[in-house]
Fold this protein.
Amino acid sequence: MPDTIFNKIIDGDIPCHKVYEDDKVLAFLDIGPLSRGHTLVIPKESAQTLDQLSADSAAAIGRVLPRIAQAVLSATGARSFNVLQNNGADAHQEVMHVHFHIIPKYDDGAGLGIGWKAGALDASEGAELAKRIADQCRREA
Ligand code: AMP
């Protein structure tokens, strides 16, 4: 597993503006915020992408994400936010340690800009694809 800047933050070798910590999870302010209050929530477990993360660490993050998001909203006054989670360099992941961005969205537009070019799901292709994914889900459970 490559050593990343987030491992150094977890180990206390690099400082951060910490907002939350428990035995499995750390959250801190993003050093290059898209908007005020932009926060990163990371597992202490070293996993590069979400699909590689243990169920235990995933559950630990899932348990606290809503609370941290509420805290970010309360502290900033923002009323909307995006949760962004990039996996892989092609999907804009720069730090190869799983992380969830909580990005407040403000009335002036500050926050995450999203390009969303929606297609149309073909019914028979959708049925076939859903079956393949469902089969994999059963296999990996
Ligand atoms: P991603 O493109 O999803 O991998 O996002 C990585 C994020 O980590 C970026 O938003 C960076 O600004 C942020 N980041 C990188 N180094 C640090 C650091 N030392 N402290 C806080 N945030 C960081």
Notes: Residues 5, 14, 16, 30-32, 40, 86, 92-95 surround adenosine monophosphate (CB under 6 Å). Strands lie at 18-21, 25-29, 39-43, 80-84, 100-105. The chain is about 35% helix and 20% strand.
